[in-house]
């Protein structure tokens, strides 16, 4: 079956602009995660959804970052007033819930110039 | 606080030799442990997990890992390395007390030398 799909795969934007990153999880997976990975680092937690609600958004770095999952499936990560320090690979993952593993998408490489 | 340590940034091993990639963790509750592999310009690919039961778990591509509660370790192993195993390996933990998120280590780059 299809895995986690993230679009776009690459995004270049100018400092100060607004961007949206999309994640299509595996069908039926109730849990969805967003992570950010900088070069040479491990993935850093941003936000976790269980169904439609953000169950844990403690990893969002500031109020420029926001994520939604209105119908409990597709999720969008939104970044306002982008800064060069936001440049990273943004990873989305989904899982069926419980203590099981999460399945990751290929990521969106965001470059802020 | 929850954390994962991968003490080696880089591991080199000759093809055909056994390999070990080290991981230690810190959690307040019960640990749920995972290994992922990342190839260049690719997402994280799940290898194996320890949730409960036998301390030795087997996963994809001949990899295995041993959960050691007293040493708070979960080292990844493979009896005979292949050149195609060269990649970046991440250890991750979930904490039964906090649940939701996966805490990742900084990764270990494995190079298998032909």
Fold and architecture overview:
The complex is a heterodimer of chains A (113) and B (114). With 113 residues, chain A is mainly beta. Helix content of chain A is 0%, strand content 49%. Chain A is built from no helices and eleven strands. Chain B is 0% helix and 53% strand. Chain B has no helices and twelve strands. In chain B, strands 2, 5, 6, 10, 11 and 12 form a six-stranded mixed beta sheet that branches. In chain B, strands 3-9-8-7 form a four-stranded antiparallel beta sheet, with no helix packed on it. The chains are: A mainly beta (113), B mainly beta (114). Chains A and B meet through strand 5 and strand 10 of A and strand 5, strand 6 and strand 11 of B.
Largest interface: A-B, 25 and 22 residues
Tell me the count of domains of chain A: 1
Q: What's the helix count of chain A?
A: 0
Largest sheet of chain B: 6 strands, mixed
Q: Write the CATH fold name of chain A.
A: Immunoglobulin-like
- Bulk shape of chain B: globular
How much beta of chain A, percentage-wise? over 45%
Question: What is the ordering of alpha helices and beta strands of chain A?
Answer: EEEEEEEEEEE
Strand content of chain B: over 45%
Q: How would the blueprint of this fold be written?
A:
The complex is a heterodimer of chains A (113) and B (114).
Chain A: E1 5-7, E2 10-13, E3 19-24, E4 31-37, E5 44-50, E6 53-56, E7 65-68, E8 75-79, E9 88-95, E10 103-104, E11 108-112
Parallel strand pairs in A: 2-11
Antiparallel strand pairs in A: 1-3, 3-8, 4-5, 4-9, 5-6, 7-8, 9-10, 9-11
Chain B: E1 3-5, E2 10-14, E3 19-21, E4 24-26, E5 31-38, E6 44-50, E7 56-58, E8 64-68, E9 73-78, E10 87-95, E11 103-104, E12 108-113
Parallel strand pairs in B: 2-12
Antiparallel strand pairs in B: 1-4, 3-9, 5-6, 5-10, 7-8, 8-9, 10-11, 10-12
